[in-house]
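ARCHIVE CARD
SHELF: 3
SLOT: left
DATA:
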Amino acid sequence: MLGKRGKELWIQTSLADELRAQQVGDYVSFVINQNINFTQYCIGSCRFCTFRADHDTSKEKSSRMSLDDIAIDVEKAIARGCTEICIQGGLDSDLTFDYYLDMLKTIKGKSQQLHIHGFSPAEIAYMSQISDETVEDVLKELINYGLGTLPGTAAEILVDEVRRIICPEKISTKQWVNIILTAHQLGLKTSSTMMYGHVESLEDEAEHLVLLKHIQEISQGFTEFVPLPFIHSNTVLYRFLGARPSSTGMHDLALYSTARLYLGEIIPNIQTSWVKLGPKFAQVTLNSGVNDLGGTLFSEQITKSAGGQYGEEKTVEEFLDMIRDANRIPAQRDTEYNLIKTFD
């Protein structure tokens, strides 16, 4: 299915669209959220990332946010009507585990109603390392301080041969899976993702999807699947290591439709990425099995630093226009896909 092109692809996308209508209806959902990338400092060496700042070379004061900075962003989010704060950052060697707990405390101190969607499995592994606590104990403490769900990022491609090329120092496939399953066992739901369009093969992509389905069959803890095309322009992986210049439009549609056809029964929410694909093509994916547009974000630095060209935020009005123009029904949701409001 991932390799379909031409008329066969259009048949596949039509089938995916029909299945989407059967599984989740005609709503296209979105969440009003604020993205907070709290530190650029990172001990990692992911070859697709240009967001990272090195302690030895970067002296920019803005590379790490103080708790006061975070509090200001949260206040802005509340004023904008956000229901979710999404927090992720680099693996900063100057931060202690207490900083992460204090960050959660700061956010919840501004509003107990805000849902915190935070910390990739790579960040959880790092917290375990710097705190000398188990992953389970780290997650329990984060939950006690207000963490609501976990982003299933840092997955990239869940094939270790690929990971050794694109992110050799990052957590392994086994570590990622164990952290995700531990989170699910503790009642902490997560998203699931795949970054594609670089050095992986179609077989690698298929292996990744099979693994996600297997995890969901065990735990039922994934809220959605989010394919994320590689943004190549400024990356070492593209400039020096022979990666492809991201995906093609045809492959994007093949992947989204495959996700619906293969995962839709067990992961019914398939999310497109307007920040990576752009709003026009994200709109096209709504006819290929997609039922969610993601979040307003209001501030998104990671894609922008890699060469993303589609901005850092979308307003609710822009989402409504995109969805209605696709002849679908807009719906505001919370992080766990409970509908808050529909715009019939």
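SLOT: right
DATA:
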Amino acid sequence: MTISGELTTDMTLQGQKVNSTDQYTYLGYIMNSKWDVSGTIKNNKNKVRKAVYASYSFLKRSDVLTALKIKFINSVLMPIGCYGGETFGMSEARCRPIQSEIDKAIRMVAKVGKSASIERISGELGVTNVFVRTNTASDRALHSWPKSKIWISDLIKAQLKAWMAT
């Protein structure tokens, strides 16, 4: 896979030609040559939805403490939704599909309908917004990755040069 450019040479590994690809998935994070993150966002949204449905009976139980349910949302659902957020965390609109799935779980725990303000409920229960978490991760990555001694630093530096040019 070539990032932001055309493949000019064939890559070989142990004397054999390596086929090029337009898309690559690593640990559930979908990378493609256009830096499009919509596949990752959709993947994260579906994983959060599956986790909410799998935990439906737990979240609806009245004999389980609300604090325990909130811990579940913060420690299980949020990390699933925010996985790879370093690349899509700068846009609240991109985070919205994932946030809507988290909101469904919050509404289940709070036992409120759609007319209640989710921002107030989240604030009272102590659940941070997906955008805030991914934006923080993105900001941290942009400051720490360029100093890294692995391949990601070259990509980040090249991307920063492109940002500065626009």
